[in-house]
Amino acid sequence: MADDKELRDLRQQAHEAGIRGNSKMDEEQLREALRKVDKGEDPIKAKREAHDWE
After folding, report:
1. Residue 37 burial (10 A CB sphere; 0-12, 13-18, 19+)
2. Which residue of 4, 15, 21, 47 lies most exposed, with the fewest beta carbons within 10 A?
3. Which residues of 1-34 are buried (b: 16+ CB within 10 A; e: fewer)?
4. Whether 46 contacts 19, CB under 8 Å
5. Cβ(30)–Cβ(14) under 8 Å?
6. Euclidean distance between CA atoms 37 and 41, whole angstroms
């Protein structure tokens, strides 16, 4: 499990990748969304899929 600093870093990376409003996402969801964006998926779609908001 990520410590507070690591979680803040993940949130910052997500924000920079275009995954806005990620404050309610947990570590696993952030990592999944970032992986999807790194593979070329739309940040909004990646967030929705990682956070089960469909």
Report:
1. buried
2. 4
3. eeeeeeeeebbebbeebebeebeebeeebbbbbb
4. yes
5. yes
6. 5
Closest CA to 46 of 25, 34, 54: 34
**Averaged over 11-24, what is the pLDDT?**
95
pTM for the whole thing?
Answer: 0.87
Q: CA-CA distance, 54 to 4, in Å (whole number)?
A: 28
Query: Which tokens sit at 20?
Result: 């806005």
Please tell me the distance from the alpha carbon of residue 22 to that of residue 33, in angstroms, as a whole number.
10
